[in-house]
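Example 5.3 — Glutamate--tRNA ligase
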Amino acid sequence: MGASTETGAVVTRFAPSPTGYLHIGGARTALFNWLFARHHGGKFLLRIEDTDRARSTEPAIAAILDGMRWLGLDWDGDAVYQFARASRHAEVARELLAAGKAYRCYLTPEELTAQREAAKAERRPFRLDSPWRDADPASGPDLPSVVRLKAPTEGDLVIDDKVQGTVTVNAAEIDDFVLLRSDGTPTYMLAVVVDDNDMDVTHVIRGDDHLSNAFRQLALIRALGWREPAYAHVPMIHGPDGGKLSKRHGAMGVDAYRDQLGLLPEAVGNYLLRLGWGHGDDEIISRADAVRWFDLDHVGKSPSRFDFKKLANLNGHYIREANDARLAALVADRLPFAVTPGQLDLLRRAMPSLKPRASDLLELTDNSAFLFRMRPLEMDEAAAALLGGDAPLILALAHAALDASESWDTEALETAVRQVAEDAGVKLGAVAQPLRAALTGRKTSPGIFDVLVLLGREESLGRIADQMAKPD
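Solution (predicted structure tokens):
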């Protein structure tokens, strides 16, 4: 039956089912596998478990690959598609049959239901009792059958899990599960074991909802005489209230974190890393440090709670640290018009003023909108309130002072505006606030002198003139 070759190198895998998006829990699993492989200089493999042909879709596969690339989780070699390996899976099942370690079972659905109901009535755990387990293979009827593993019936199965610790299950709890369906197609349990072996996977790192599967897979691995991988079952992610992670808690596709929430991949990656793993008090962890520090010893045993506020704060940090040209390009992609090279350069120059005030790309895009608005600007309610009373007269004074300024830099513009306030006998805010409203159409914006520089002399003076008192 041939065991896999022992390579000595660490090999991990991420094996999503393409029946939907790459959800946030799956992304964390992929990240942990990637980091463990990269930390040990090993391989990180990607396997698409597309055996559910009715639910597996090409758009879902594309979304998974896109999400992986966005998070910077590159995989080694080509992605493996499980369905394409069905003949190999069936071959292994036939080898087990020939070795007497599996059997053809002809129990009907009705007979299986009767056994389950009897176990329920007697208040005992259900364990399959097939008369075909020890029957002469040649005695089977000419009827459809499944192929079942002859699971061990005595002793314990023990897994020294790298996260959960030592976990023991009595062999009596492992039933003779199906390897091949009656139509000859392999089951998930068989396919996973065969693929992990053939891909030389040394460490299976996955959610702890798969822990019960691990014992069935271990029974199959031992029947085949193959090398046993190390297991690490990571606790699930819960919502802020401790309940199951729902869509309102953050159980969305990775693409939604990018497109709908406007988050940066490095922020999402950093947050997922800290969601169940720690390195002292470090919160901001670069990818390079994550590779250097990551281990399984510091993965927590308790479920983690998703915290949107913490994620938003972390993303704000990465927005402030991000390259201005990169942010400009990301914002340009979100604007409702095609950005010209000149406008892209304006965005880049605006980033030092814009990014300290934004926690995500949505805010950054919204805050940059004033740069491209057409005159006359439409005022929001708060901005309109700033333009009443004496504001038009003050704007006229500011327009004259700014128009007379020989230089159009923040220092010269601030000097001019402060002089207007002093001459008018008002505080600086009484001039700056109407200016902000006139220039941006809003009550809040980057520093008013930065706004003036970014808009330039002609556009700034034109916007102020639209709102100031006209001379008689």
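Remark. Residues 420 and 426 are 9 Å apart (CA to CA).
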